[in-house]
Write a structure and sequence with these properties.
CATH architecture: Orthogonal Bundle
Radius of gyration: 21 Å
Helix content: over 70%
Number of strands: 0
Largest sheet: none
CATH topology: ABC transporter involved in vitamin B12 uptake, BtuC
Number of helices: 10
Oligomer: single chain
Low-confidence stretches: none
Structural class: mainly alpha
Length: 224
């Protein structure tokens, strides 16, 4: 754990120093903590560090935590060590929601469409779990994975259809799939982090259930 924290700190420091304009450790320190003064060069450094590189670094860390926890939960529920958020249609649901609202309402700011991404991901997840609970294989991890893949393929096709019919949606989809953290400020990060924090708290309540699932369906039913 200590090694991971150390690597995270190092990666964060590198993110603050590396970019279109490389900064020395001293310049990064000045940009973070120094008070404003009349020096134009130092003012530019503070602007670069505080308004560009700190937000992108924080966003990358928050997104990494969310993806890591989400992936661990999905791997536990599906008992698949290589499963990820794409397996249950979460990614496809978010992408479809984003391109749809851009095509329908002309949203271009991430702060405008990020909420629809949350909604699309949630709806897709509910649909997948609903489909997997129908029939003889209800509750089976394999059924859950198959339902997820079916929903993913359908939503991916719908997303492509919408994107090809609207240039703005296509551009947004490219940016979305690239996963860039550039150009996003704390006005987007703060509310998104709140939602992620709630999700992390809920995730902390699931380890007992995941441990039971890892022992097999019969054991899990016996303890239910």
């Amino acid at each position: 754990m200590g090694t991971l924290v150390a690597l995270l700190v190092i990666a964060g420091a590198v993110s603050l120093a590396v970019g279109a304009r490389a900064l020395s450790p001293g310049e990064v320190w000045h940009g973070l903590f120094a008070a404003p003064d009349s020096d134009q060069r130092l003012t530019e450094i503070r602007l670069i560090v505080r308004t560009v590189r700190v937000p992108r670094t924080v966003l990358a860390i928050v997104a990494g935590i969310a993806l890591g926890v989400g992936g661990a939960l999905i791997q536990g529920y599906t008992r698949n060590p290589i499963a990820d958020t794409g397996l249950l249609g979460v990614n496809a649901g978010a992408s479809f929601a984003v391109v749809s609202v851009i095509a329908l309402f002309g949203f271009t700011d991430p702060f405008q469409y990020v909420w629809f991404a949350f909604l699309g991901a949630a709806v897709a997840g509910v649909v997948v779990f609903g489909l997997s609970s129908i029939g003889r294989g209800a509750g089976n991890p394999l059924t859950l994975a198959l339902a997820g893949q079916g929903v993913t393929v359908f939503l991916a096709a719908m997303t492509t259809a919408v994107a090809l019919s609207d240039q703005a949606s296509l551009n947004a989809l490219r940016f979305w799939n690239a996963g860039s953290v550039a150009g996003v400020g704390f006005d987007v990060i703060r509310p998104v982090t709140l939602f992620i924090a709630v999700g992390l708290v809920l995730a902390l309540t699931t380890p007992p259930a995941l441990n039971l699932l890892s022992l097999g369906d019969d054991v899990a039913r016996g303890w239910a």
